[in-house]
Design goal:
By secondary structure, the protein is an all-beta fold. Helix content is 0%, strand content 47%. The chain is globular and about 35 Å long. The protein starts with a strand and ends in an 11-residue tail after the last strand.
């Protein structure tokens, strides 16, 4: 699979989110600088709020998981799995990320698919 060079690690905001467009998909990137440093990539689309806003959410922890709280209705999405903590039938897509030579790369291939209740 193709890795997309998104940005320098210095372009990301520590303990916060930014949005990148990868193959016409908005992806929210979250940089956690604590050792070991990590970058998480999830779809920027909040399926509950029906808007591309997750990159503007607040990072925290809940149920032993790193999460982002949607700025709209405050649901929490796990940064590793995309699962919504409050609604088990909802999750957002997650994407593979790697850091090489201080560059952040994302694969457009989805790790976990977004689903929602019908």
């Amino acid at each position: 699979m193709l890795w997309h060079d998104i940005a320098s690690i210095d372009d990301l905001v520590a303990d916060s989110g930014v949005c990148a467009l990868v193959e016409n998909t908005q992806i929210a990137l979250f940089y956690i600088p604590q050792e070991p440093a990590a970058v998480f990539a999830i779809n920027n689309y909040d399926p509950i709020g029906d808007a591309n806003v997750l990159s503007r959410g607040i990072i925290g922890s809940m149920q032993n998981s790193l999460v982002v709280a949607s700025p709209l209705y405050k649901q929490h999405f796990c940064l590793q799995t995309g699962q919504c903590i409050e609604q088990s039938d909802v999750c957002v897509a997650t994407y593979p990320v790697k850091i090489e030579n201080d560059r952040v790369f994302v694969q457009a291939q989805v790790c976990a698919e977004q689903t929602s209740a019908a």
